[in-house]
Amino acid sequence: MDAQGRGRAEGADPADQWVLNPQTGDYELRLDSAPAPPPPPVPRQRTPQAPGPRPGGPRPGGPRDRDGERNDDEQDDDGSTDGPRDPHRRRRDRPKRSRKRKALMWTGGVMGLVLVGGSAFAYYWYDRLNGNIGTVDIGDVGSAAVLGDGPANILVIGNDVRTGEGNEAYGNRDNVTGHADTTLLFHVAGDRSNATVVSIPRDLMTEIPDCETRQSDGSTKTIPGSQGTTRFNESYGVEGRDPGCTMRTVEELTGLDVDHFMMFDFNAVKTLSTAVGGVEVCLEKPLKDTSGGTKLDLPAGKSTIQGEKALSFLRNRHGLKNESDLDRIGMQQKFVASMLRRLKEDTLSSPSKMLDVADAATKSLTVDQGIGSASKLLTLARELGKIDLKNITLMTLPVVDNPDEPTPVTVVPDPEKAPQVFSMLQDDVSFTEVKKQQKKAKDKQAALLNGPRAEASAVRVDVLNGGGPQGAAGETVAWLRSSAGVSRSANQGNAPAKAARTQLVYAPDQADQARKLADLMGLPAAALKPSAKAGGEGPMTLTLGPDFKKAGVPVATPRKVDVPQSRADEKMCKG
Q1: Which part of the chain is the Cell envelope-related transcriptional attenuator domain (predicted)?
Q2: Phi, psi of 417 (to 5 degrees)
């Protein structure tokens, strides 16, 4: 397949896709040609049978009812069958078929029609949805699995390309590929109990790394990274950057591994909002954009919007508090939450609406190859559907005005709050009140501090500065040696990459040393990270993060971050 294309089930015969599942005894539709699960072990090996009746079906001589009588295709008493007969030949009297037998025949016939009709219908829709989906080969970034066993991170990119009817008033007229206009990082907890959706502002100043892209002819091309910081929305579309470049940018920014991306364009908002029957929004005051490009005119209170009006609502910033991109992000989050509620409360209970929504969504959808089929997206949707709306948190990445601009028009990550958000996501800590999950994680981490302590003179540790104050590594080593008795500590300078928080990495047999250093430094249990390395032949590694203030001052990472948040189950309109 080309680097970007539309996936279809080419050359597949629908009849070949019904496969016997030996574990259930039923035939199942395997639309993406996945191999059937292996049969369970049997006492002896059997020779594979040619295609034909299922095991346990009709045997030579004809099937029998439970009372031992032959079925209708048996021979008559004279040895003839129920095939064509001589019309002048006298037919022997035969017992009338029982009502039960007739009912079974009718039931079997109806089920056969339903099966054939259902398979054709399912195949039609699978083929249609599969043909709608666009895929991009993003190389070695991301995951080949739909969802692994642990936490997952999915990047949802809103592309501001202007293709499609009625989209001339939006976006950049000169850009034919679009930019990463609206970007949401969807973090799904490992136990699927909660999720966090973080909006990344398009005007965020950040570094964009080098990015290897796949070309349509199968070759690769490396797009150079930014020289210093640049706007986040340039991580896609500029100089040939693909969605994989946006994924790499988010990984550099957050310290998280991004598994998949899903990219929508303007048309997706219009078709999706229409397919669900409209999305309810609520305004404290009228919203009018008579002079802007959206021409939006909504009254105060409740409104149900769809199509062009829904897109205008998401694109508009006029009439909002500061008329900024951050204000617009807040409106977008409320719209997304309202649509999620509509999908879960109304659409999922209606098969016809589900198909309409799936058709509308996939027509404007581009994804990575790891989720590049209808069946894979269905698997993903089922997993995400397990999460209660009240446990889905929506927030904007904490930012501050760019200090390098006299009149700020861009933003930078909040130096105090943003690392705390990244740390919580890295540790898979919920922003919602999922008490059982929080207590389990907290107890597991706190247990690392339980146990014997080594003597201070036996502690061996290398100290690196990964985001603490300038010179923090040297000052910490000096303090450890002079005030704490840790003579076997060494300054290793700056860490190779910025750390989200202070962390102590140690081997299992260095746990007593780690506990002692945690006591001396005031490290919380969350800062301890046992490694998989079997033996602690070398020293432990202490990387000082932005939460480190000064040697001798305890490091305390707050469990809750003071940033504006909302929940997916919160209605825009009260009452």
Answers
A1: 179-344
A2: -85, -35
State mean pLDDT over 168-193. 74
The b/e string for 188-204 (b: 16+ C-beta within 10 A; e otherwise) is: bbebbbbbbbbbbbbbb
pLDDT tens-digit readout, 327-368: 778 788 888 888 888 887 776 667 777 788 888 888 888 999
Which residues are registered as beta bridge partners of 287? Answer: 298
Mean pLDDT of 230-235: 92
d(CA 256, CA 148): 15
Residue that has been written with the tokens 């008795």 in this structure: 485
CA gap 514, 85 in Å, rounded: 93
58-111 pLDDT, tens per residue? Answer: 433 444 343 444 444 444 444 444 444 444 444 445 555 555 555 555 555 555
Asked if residue 495 lies in contact with residue 464, where contact means CB atoms within 8 angstroms, the answer is yes
If pLDDT is split at 50, 70 and 90, which confidence band does 453 have?
Answer: very high
Place of tokens 């397919």: 275
Cβ-contact 148, 377 below 8 angstroms:
no
DSSP H stretches of helix in 346-471:
351-363, 374-384, 417-426, 435-446
Interval 438-458 mean pLDDT:
79
The structural domains of the chain, ordered by start, are: 1-32+102-132 (no CATH), 135-433 (3.40.630.190), 443-544 (3.30.70)
- Side by side, the strands of the sheet bearing 528-530 are 488-494, 460-465, 540-544, 503-506, 528-530
> 386 is written with which tokens?
């397990």
- Name the band, by pLDDT with cuts 50, 70 and 90, for residue 322: low
Q: Whole-model pTM? A: 0.61
545-556 residue pLDDT tens? 888 888 888 886
- Give the C-alpha separation, 196 to 567, whole Å: 9
Alpha helices (H) in 235-350, listed in sequence order? 243-254, 266-275, 308-315, 325-345
Q: What is the pLDDT of residue 542?
A: 96
Single out the residue of 233, 235, 184, 231 nearest to residue 210, CA to CA: 235
User: What was the pLDDT predicted at 323?
Assistant: 67
Check: CB of residue 294 under 8 Å from CB of residue 315: yes
Residues forming a β-bridge with 205: 231
Q: Which residues contact 491 (CB under 8 A, 6 or more apart)?
A: 463, 473, 474, 476, 477
Q: How far apart, in whole angstroms, are the C-alpha atoms of residue 494 and residue 481?
A: 19
Q: Place 39 in a pLDDT band, splitting at 50, 70 and 90.
A: very low
220-223 and 230-231 beta bridge pairing: unpaired
CA 512/CA 506 separation, integer angstroms: 10
Round to whole Å and give the CA distance between 72 and 56.
Answer: 18
H-run or E-run covering 116: helix 99-132
Q: In Å, what is the CA distance from 451 to each residue of 387, 425, 512?
A: 37, 28, 7
Q: How far is the CA of 221 from the CAs of 20, 225, 258, 301, in angstroms?
A: 45, 13, 21, 51
